[in-house]
């Protein structure tokens, strides 16, 4: 978690410095468009501060009140960030619409454009870095904060274009038109972050991650693992919790069953790219399993193997043994 905290702290300090620069640009230009970008930078600082706190909470060990850890707080962080981005986008749209009817005198546009352009480049580089590290760690909070910064880069780009167009054409209403367009984009970005956070809080399946786990299980499947079914997954921060049923030969003793379960756990944690906690319920095989069982020299086989059943998302997530499908 040290790297998580370091990345968020860099984002927080950078956001605070860029906020000062953006408000400086506003005081120089008196542009409502610049003011909306400066106001949105406040969102960056607040969101980064809460993200830093959520990373701290997510790193706390499990306790009696939180037996699965504190990782879910990251989804609250993303929800707050998405909500703040959405509010900022709405404010930009409303203020820009207002300026259509009540335009203000603006000046020093080139200086303002240079300042805003510089802040946009810095946010873009930092945002790209945070998204890449957020996926690698993995941390939804860091990734969401990075996407927020990329959104701010788009805002700054639109702002620079608007300021330059106004400077060279003298058409004041372009300021409002472009800012409304950018505001709509920001609003949509906020919606996507909120949608993602709600999905996490509601334990919506992350099919990308589960698909990787199923692929690893299928590629390194042992003869002893007759089938896996009723697989369910929940994410808690950067950890994945999986419940599943594993069918094993019914003549295995308890020690052998325990060893097979450990092998599944170790293999997935080594190969799937995410820390995974397994809760595996073992089922004994039945005579109906023989036609797809690969177990060699089985003393209780009732019929030869005649079918190869590939483990797919659809098959392993059903609450049925493969012979029932």
From TrEMBL:
Main subcellular localisation: membrane
UniProt entry keywords in alphabetical sequence: Membrane, Transmembrane, Transmembrane helix, Transport
Cation efflux protein transmembrane domain span: 8-202
Membrane-traversing stretches: 7-29, 41-61, 73-97, 109-129, 149-170, 176-194
Signal peptide start and end residues: none
A GO BP entry: intracellular zinc ion homeostasis
Its membrane topology: Multi-pass membrane protein
Cation efflux protein cytoplasmic domain: residues covered: 223-285
Molecular function as annotated in GO: cadmium ion transmembrane transporter activity; ferrous iron transmembrane transporter activity; zinc efflux antiporter activity
Keyword GTP-binding: no
GO cellular component: plasma membrane
Classification via Pfam families: Cation_efflux (PF01545), ZT_dimer (PF16916)
Subcellular location: Membrane
UniProt-listed PANTHER family: MITOCHONDRIAL METAL TRANSPORTER 1-RELATED (PTHR43840)
Protein name: Cation transporter
Top-level taxonomy: Bacteria, Pseudomonadati, Bacteroidota, Sphingobacteriia, Sphingobacteriales
């Amino acid at each position: 978690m040290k790297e998580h905290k370091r990345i968020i702290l860099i984002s927080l300090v950078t956001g605070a410095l860029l906020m000062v620069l953006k408000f400086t640009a506003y005081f120089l230009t008196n542009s409502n468009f610049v003011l909306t970008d400066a106001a949105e930078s406040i969102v960056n600082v607040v969101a980064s501060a809460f993200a830093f706190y959520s990373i701290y909470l997510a790193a706390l060990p499990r306790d009696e009140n939180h037996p699965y850890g504190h990782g879910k707080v990251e989804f609250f962080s993303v929800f707050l960030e998405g909500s703040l981005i959405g509010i900022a986008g709405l404010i930009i749209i409303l203020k820009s619409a207002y300026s259509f009817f009540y335009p203000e005198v603006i000046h020093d546009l080139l200086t303002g454009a240079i300042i805003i352009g510089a802040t946009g480049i810095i946010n873009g580089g930092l945002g790209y870095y945070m998204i890449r590290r957020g996926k690698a760690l993995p941390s939804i909070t860091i990734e969401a904060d990075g996407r927020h910064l990329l959104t701010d880069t788009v805002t700054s780009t639109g702002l620079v274009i608007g300021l330059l167009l106004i400077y060279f054409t003298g058409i004041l209403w372009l300021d409002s038109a472009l800012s409304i367009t950018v505001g709509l984009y920001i609003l949509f970005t906020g919606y996507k972050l909120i949608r993602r956070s709600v999905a996490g809080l509601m334990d919506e399946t992350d099919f990308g991650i589960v698909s990787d786990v199923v692929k690893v299980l299928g590629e390194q499947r042992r003869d002893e693992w007759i089938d896996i079914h009723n697989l369910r997954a929940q994410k808690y921060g950067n950890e994945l919790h999986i419940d599943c049923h594993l069918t094993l030969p019914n003549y295995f003793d308890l020690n052998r069953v325990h060893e097979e379960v450990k092998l599944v756990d170790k293999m997935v944690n080594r190969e799937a790219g995410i820390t995974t906690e397994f809760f595996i319920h073992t089922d004994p095989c039945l005579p109906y399993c023989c036609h797809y069982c690969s177990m060699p020299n089985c003393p209780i086989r009732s019929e030869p193997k005649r079918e190869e059943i590939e483990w797919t998302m659809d098959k392993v997530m059903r609450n049925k043994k493969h012979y029932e499908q």
